[in-house]
Amino acid sequence: MPFASLLAPFDRRLAGGVTFVVLFACAAQQLAQLSPVSRLGISPLIVGIVIGIFYGNTLRHHLPSQWLPGILFSSKTLLRLAVVFYGFRITFQDIALVGAEGFAAGAIMLATTFLLGAGLGIKAFRLPPRLALMIAAGSAVCGAAAVLATEPVVRGRPHESSIAVGTVVIFGTLAMFLYPAVFASGVLGFDDATYGLFAGASLHEVAHVVAAGRAVSTEAANNAVIVKMLRVMMLAPLLAVLALALVRRSKGDAAGAPAKGSFPWFAVGFILCAGINSLQVVPAPVVVAINELDLFALTMAMCALGMETSLDKVRKVGARPFVLAGCLALWLAFGGYWVTALVHGLLGAA
Question: Which DSSP state fits 338?
Fold first, then answer.
């Protein structure tokens, strides 16, 4: 029954809480469309978790107890379903466009960033493994969406997920402004297409990649987005490997590793949706509608996650998560430059 938890029947007891989260998600989408917010490339997901945290730490005690199951449904089951349908943003044809050069750069940066984040976070900074792995995944793959997808695999807690999202958003946003400026200075020595490869392989959020690419040229933006979506595609195998690794270490592990049988089947659903999208059997307007609904579902999950976040617990963790994310941001920038230059030199002329 791998998908049983994903397809649990919607119960009337969930209606009140889910409706409440829907209203928050609507507000998040409206706020994200405001000029000051949209210019910064801040997605509704990020706005959602911010307003969710604000509510959760101010007015949460007024929440009717019967609404809690709906909020938990939004942050757990709905989240998994949203990750599945995130696959409709990807096609194998797009990935083929960047060839071996894009695949190599994306794969190397994803693997090295995740391993570096896990190693530094757990061994050097002594963070809870759940938190370290979520920060590593968010930095390595696709920011907030990757944190959300990793949370059920490592059994992360709401405040840990919020911290992980906050770290990747802060450093990803800074990089989004710095990358085009550094490119314009000529320091990188890349042409537009290679810069797009660099941005797609090393920036955090999809929105950050789009903004940093468009700031240079259409060619840069196209390359950046394709390489970025390749990294998103790699999220599924990353989660599968992570789940298997945690199962092996689950005996006597106090880190919250998943029990046996908790393979992330929603990651398989993600790949299946990408495959269906690649076959182009679903009309384009329907795919657009699916992506819009999926974005809304992810925003709902972020709002619900924020509502479950205690700032007291966040404060207790201290600055170490942000130091870890900063180290990973430096690796993404400098290591990403080196990897892009190396891959372009080896495969660019092939």
Answer: H
